[in-house]
C-alpha cells in the first residue's frame, strides 16, 4: 500500500516483475529445472513485464499504393472514431508510452490527413509525448498539412524502395504514372522548412537488392535510413486468404547482408532482418489490438479499449530485449536531435 501510494501503477508492476525474476533465477540455479520450463517461464515474465514505450498504431488499412510485399493490407476499411482513438492513446500514455508512430495503410488517406493531424496534435500537445512520428508513402501529403500540424510532429518517415521509377512501378510503390521520387524530394524539403526530422524506410527485395543507393541517400540526408528485409506474414502477403503474394519478392539472408555491406558507409543506416522485425515491435491494429507476429501471422489480442493495456500486451508477442538490441530506443524527439534546419 505504501509503494502504490507513491509509484505509478506501471512502475510498481515493473518492480514486482523484477522481484519475481530474481526469485525464479535463484530457484532455478539451486534446483534442477528443465531448460524448456525455464524458457516458458521467462517468456511469460517478459510478456507481463513489457512496457509500451514505443508503439506503432496502424489506424487504417486503406492505401492508394499496391506494394507487392505489403504486410498490412486493406482487409477492412474500419477506422475508430477519433475520441475512441484518443482514449486508447491516453491508456497507453498511462502505461508508459513515450513514442507513438502512426502508420497504415497510408495514414494520410483518411479524412485527407486531418484525422491523422488531430491525433498527432493530441499526442504532442495534450499527452506531451516525447516523440510523435508517421510512416507514409508521401503521395498524399500537402504543404498545408505541415503548416497546420508540423510543429507537433517529431519524425516523418517516407517509404522509398528504389531510386529508379520503373522499379518502383514494378514493386507497386506508385499510383498511376505519378513520380514517387518527386514526392520524396518535395516532402524532404517541407520537413526542413517546417522543422520535422526526415527519415527513409526501404524494403529490400528481389527487384532492388542489387541497387546502389549510396549517392541518393547521401543527397537526401535523412536522420535515419531504416532498411528492412522483405518479410512474409501469413494472411497478409502469403497464404490462402492474403491480398498479396510476396514470395517472388523474397531475398536470402546472404543477399540482404550483401546489400548492407554495399551501403555500410552510410552512417544513418539501421538494418532490420526478418528475425529482428518479427517480435521487436508493438503493433496496434485499427481496433487497437496488439498483433503477435511470432508464428509468421498476425494473431490479435483483445482491444486495449476493452481490457486495458496491461492485459492486452501479454498477448502481443513483444520481445523487449530484441527491441533494445535492434536499436528501438534512440534519440527520437526532434528537440534533442540538434538538427541544422
From TrEMBL:
Entry GO CC: endoplasmic reticulum membrane; lipid droplet; mitochondrion
Cellular compartment(s): Endoplasmic reticulum membrane
Cofactor(s) the record lists: [4Fe-4S] cluster
Pfam families (UniProt xref): Radical_SAM
Keywords, alphabetical: 4Fe-4S, Antiviral defense, Endoplasmic reticulum, Immunity, Innate immunity, Iron, Iron-sulfur, Membrane, Metal-binding, S-adenosyl-L-methionine, Signal
Cited Gene3D superfamilies: Aldolase class I (3.20.20.70)
GO annotation terms (biological process): defense response to virus; innate immune response; positive regulation of immune response
Membrane topology summary: Peripheral membrane protein
Top-level taxon of origin: Eukaryota
Residues spanning the signal sequence: 1-25
Ranges for domain Radical SAM core: 49-269
A molecular function GO annotation: 4 iron, 4 sulfur cluster binding
InterPro entries for this protein: Aldolase_TIM (IPR013785), Elp3/MiaA/NifB-like_rSAM (IPR006638), RSAD2 (IPR026372), RSAD2/Viperin_antiviral (IPR051196), rSAM (IPR007197), rSAM_sf (IPR058240)
Family: Belongs to the radical SAM superfamily. RSAD2 family.
Listed name of the protein: S-adenosylmethionine-dependent nucleotide dehydratase RSAD2
Source organism: Oncorhynchus kisutch (Coho salmon)
Amino acid at each position: 500500500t505504501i509503494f502504490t501510494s507513491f509509484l505509478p501503477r506501471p512502475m510498481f508492476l515493473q518492480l514486482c516483475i523484477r522481484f519475481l525474476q530474481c526469485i525464479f533465477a535463484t530457484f532455478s540455479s539451486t534446483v534442477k529445472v528443465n531448460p524448456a520450463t525455464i524458457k516458458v517461464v521467462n517468456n511469460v515474465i517478459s510478456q507481463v513485464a513489457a512496457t509500451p514505450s514505443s508503439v506503432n498504431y496502424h489506424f487504417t488499412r486503406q492505401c492508394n499504393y499496391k506494394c507487392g510485399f505489403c504486410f498490412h493490407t486493406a482487409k477492412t476499411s474500419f477506422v475508430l472514431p477519433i475520441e475512441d482513438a484518443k482514449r486508447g492513446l491516453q491508456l497507453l500514455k498511462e502505461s508508459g508510452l513515450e513514442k507513438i508512430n502512426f502508420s497504415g495503410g497510408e495514414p494520410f488517406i483518411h479524412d485527407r490527413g486531418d484525422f491523422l493531424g488531430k491525433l498527432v496534435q493530441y499526442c504532442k500537445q495534450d499527452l506531451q509525448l516525447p516523440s510523435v512520428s508517421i510512416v507514409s508513402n508521401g503521395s498524399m501529403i500537402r504543404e498545408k498539412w505541415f503548416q497546420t500540424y508540423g510543429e507537433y510532429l517529431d519524425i516523418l518517415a517516407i517509404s522509398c524502395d528504389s531510386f529508379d521509377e520503373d522499379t518502383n512501378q514494378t514493386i507497386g510503390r506508385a499510383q498511376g504514372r505519378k513520380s514517387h521520387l518527386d514526392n520524396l524530394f518535395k516532402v524532404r524539403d517541407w520537413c526542413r522548412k517546417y522543422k520535422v526530422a526526415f527519415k527513409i524506410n526501404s524494403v529490400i527485395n528481389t527487384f532492388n537488392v542489387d541497387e546502389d543507393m549510396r549517392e541518393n541517400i547521401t543527397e537526401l540526408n535523412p536522420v535515419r535510413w531504416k532498411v528492412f528485409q522483405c518479410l512474409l506474414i501469413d494472411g497478409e502477403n502469403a497464404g490462402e486468404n492474403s491480398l498479396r503474394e510476396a514470395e517472388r519478392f523474397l531475398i536470402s539472408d546472404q543477399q540482404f547482408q550483401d546489400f548492407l555491406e554495399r551501403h555500410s558507409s552510410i552512417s544513418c543506416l539501421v538494418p532490420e532482418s526478418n528475425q529482428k522485425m518479427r517480435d521487436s515491435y508493438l503493433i496496434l491494429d485499427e481496433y487497437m489490438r496488439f498483433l503477435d507476429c511470432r508464428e509468421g501471422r498476425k494473431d490479435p489480442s483483445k482491444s486495449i479499449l476493452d481490457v486495458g493495456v496491461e492485459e492486452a500486451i501479454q498477448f502481443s508477442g513483444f520481445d523487449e530485449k530484441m527491441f533494445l538490441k535492434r536499436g528501438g530506443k534512440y534519440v527520437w524527439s526532434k528537440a534533442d536531435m540538434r538538427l541544422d534546419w
